[in-house]
Amino acid sequence: MQINQGGIAGGDLNLKKYFLSKNLKKDLPASIVVFLVALPLCLGIALASGAPLFSGLLAGIIGGVVVGMLSGSQLSVAGPAAGLTVIVLNSITKLGSYEAFMLALVIAGLMQMLLGIIKAGTIANYFPSAVIEGMLAAIGIILIMKQLPHAVGYDKDFEGDEGFAQMDTHNTFSGVYRALARVNYGAIIISSVSILLLIYWPKIKRVAIVPAPLLVVITGVVLSLLFKGTSLALDTDQLVTIPVVANGSDFFGLFKTPDFSLLSKVDLVQLLITAGTIAVVASLETLLSLEAVDKIDPIKRISPTNRELVAQGAGNLVSGLLGGLPMTAVIVRSSANVNAGARTKVSAVVHGVLLLLSLLFIPRLINLIPYSSLAAILLLTGYKLTRIGLFKHMWHKGLNQFIPFVVTIIAVYFTDLLIGVGIGMLVGVFYILRTNLRNPYFYQISTKGDKKTITIRLAEEVSFLNKAAIQVTLTSLPKGSDVIIDGSNSRYIDPDVLETIHNYKHNAYTKGIIVQLIDIKDRYDVPPFEELIYKA
């Protein structure tokens, strides 16, 4: 079987043959892991957004099933994102109701689909590798710091909050300090046993057929029940809580539909601004997550970015029509998916189905799961994203890679994903320009008697950014020398640089310098923008 970026390839393959393939053996256990990770995150993000709890679960279901089926990415997982919580909370307030916000989400979905159609996803090709690596490492550190309070049994901040400054007036550091001062030893036992199982269970070949995360959850539930009535008992806020659906009418009563009559009542400018903000922020987070997931994909597949924008837009359109939250490709869930061994998009789709089934059939059983068990899974995921070996690897690449990498980590950790990556991009671009400025030519000096001959061979691409460096070099050449400026290797020389060279030749005689130009044209056609970026 051959799998490409778009899905299953080969006309002779049928669905039955695929489901009997070895990929399914890895995708199904991975889907359980992603389901367990996504469940509390969906609820926590809905809580922080000031939206109904069901809206978070619904976004997770749609992100898994709808986006998963339409996406060309094999490992990315979509769902409600913590980075959008503030936008959602403020938008509901400004628009006056959740139903009006749903209208904005429908429009945002259409905007995202349009972005994909006009191929705006190609912007992802210009994210520096060091910045993406830094983003992944920062997410790993955030996961570790944010899950420690859950692992020790005390956290008043919502699950899924990734910001340094928390909504409970504390920050990540003070949150950890406060949690360590109010530990629950039952939660510590559960999280410690869970971590040991996650590390050592897969090494036992005879029993490793049972996914370690599933065993962790079962063990956590059993220990939690055994601790009841003792000093190790867990409180209700240390357990997962999802809405309990008693019958079909209860379930369908959870859905909301946008009130299109509000189009004539709400501020249309504000509605469009909200929709545009969601579309742009969700698209950028999706592209960043997609690029990051492709980097940790063991098969190194490349996901089609424009198709992803269309898929995410369709997901947000459906979510807006049914009462869900906006969604993006989410790096936390996607990383858990990769680390769990997923191979195809089946894992993402099945995780969405599991979210739906858990809500319909086993809500009371799900509500027995301790947060400390789930924290252990995310702690291991965070460790894999920010392992020491990654820092050593980036250091050996040189300072021009290591510094943007570290700056991105610090910026993402103390701000948020988009601002942090933006800062990292600025530092990365600085080093690209710095390298470009230092390499516009090759310099060679030869001596014949008392006469010096200096040969300057220009690079393949000489942009206006190189003007200052070339000008400084030319003005510092010794008097009475012969200068050869060779442009035979150059495909493009910027007009400003050409003017500098010709002006130097014209005035060099005053210093007794003879200048010879080789293969330097009077003008050059401008190369495509993408080619210039690639060369840089």
From TrEMBL:
Membrane-crossing residue ranges in chain numbering: 28-47, 53-70, 98-118, 125-145, 183-201, 208-227, 268-288, 309-332, 344-361, 368-385, 405-433
Keywords (A to Z) from UniProt: Membrane, Transmembrane, Transmembrane helix
Domain SLC26A/SulP transporter: 24-401
Chief place of localization: membrane
Topological category with respect to the lipid bilayer: Multi-pass membrane protein
Domain of life: Bacteria
Location of this chain's protein in the cell: Membrane
Keyword Plastid tagged: no
A single GO cellular-component term on record: membrane
Swiss-Prot/TrEMBL GO biological process terms: transmembrane transport
UniProt-listed InterPro entries: SLC26A/SulP_dom (IPR011547), SLC26A/SulP_fam (IPR001902)
UniProt keyword Zinc present: no
Protein name as catalogued: SulP family inorganic anion transporter
Source species: Mucilaginibacter psychrotolerans
